[in-house]
C-alpha cells in the first residue's frame, strides 16, 4: 500500500505559478504510476496529468498541455505538478492518486486518464486563482 499527501496549494493571482507536491509513504513507490486530478465546486473530478512509474511517460489533459508539467523523484518518493500561467478556471482541489504499475507493465495513456484505474488517493490540496 501507499499513502499520499499533497502540499503546495494556496491562493495566487492569475498569471502566477504554483508547484504542487505529492509525497508518498510505503514501499516500492518507484513501481507506482501517479496521477493528478482536480475537482472544482459543483463539477466532476477531472484528469490533469499522470506519469508512469519510471517517469519515462507523461500524460496531460489536452487543455493543460504547455502550462502544466508533471515530474517525479523516486529517490524522494515525490511527484510534482508545476503549474504556470494559472487561470481562475484552474481553481479546484487537486488530488494525487496512485496505482501499482511496475515498469514492465504497459498501459496505454487512456488508463492513466481514467479516475477508476487508480487505487490510492490523497486528501487533496486547494488551489485558488484570483482574477
Explain this structure to me?
By secondary structure, the chain is mainly beta. It has one helix at residues 109-112; strands at residues 2-7, 10-13, 18-26, 32-39, 46-51, 58-60, 68-73, 78-83, 92-100, 120-121, 125-130. The strands form 2 sheets. Strands 2, 4, 5, 6, 9, 10 and 11 form a 7-stranded mixed sheet that branches. The protein has a 4-stranded antiparallel sheet with strand order 1-3-8-7, with no helix packed on it. Strand 4 (32-39) and strand 5 (46-51) form a beta hairpin. It starts with a strand and ends with a strand. The model has no long low-confidence stretch (mean pLDDT 95).
Describe the secondary-structure layout.
Elements: E1 2-7, E2 10-13, E3 18-26, E4 32-39, E5 46-51, E6 58-60, E7 68-73, E8 78-83, E9 92-100, H1 109-112, E10 120-121, E11 125-130
Parallel strand pairs: 2-11
Antiparallel strand pairs: 1-3, 3-8, 4-5, 4-9, 5-6, 7-8, 9-10, 9-11
Amino acid at each position: 500500500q501507499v499513502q499520499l499527501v499533497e502540499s503546495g496549494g494556496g491562493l495566487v493571482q492569475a498569471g502566477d505559478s504554483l508547484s504542487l507536491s505529492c509525497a508518498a509513504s510505503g514501499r516500492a513507490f518507484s513501481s507506482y504510476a501517479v496521477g493528478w486530478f482536480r475537482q472544482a465546486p459543483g463539477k466532476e473530478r477531472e484528469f490533469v496529468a499522470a506519469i508512469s512509474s519510471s517517469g519515462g511517460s507523461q500524460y496531460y489533459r489536452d487543455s493543460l498541455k504547455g502550462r502544466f508539467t508533471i515530474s517525479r523523484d523516486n529517490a524522494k518518493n515525490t511527484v510534482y505538478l508545476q503549474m504556470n500561467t494559472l487561470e481562475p478556471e484552474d481553481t479546484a482541489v487537486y488530488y494525487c492518486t496512485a496505482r501499482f504499475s511496475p515498469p514492465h507493465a504497459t498501459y496505454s495513456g487512456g488508463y492513466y486518464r481514467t479516475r477508476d484505474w487508480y487505487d490510492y488517493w490523497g486528501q487533496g490540496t486547494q488551489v485558488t486563482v484570483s482574477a
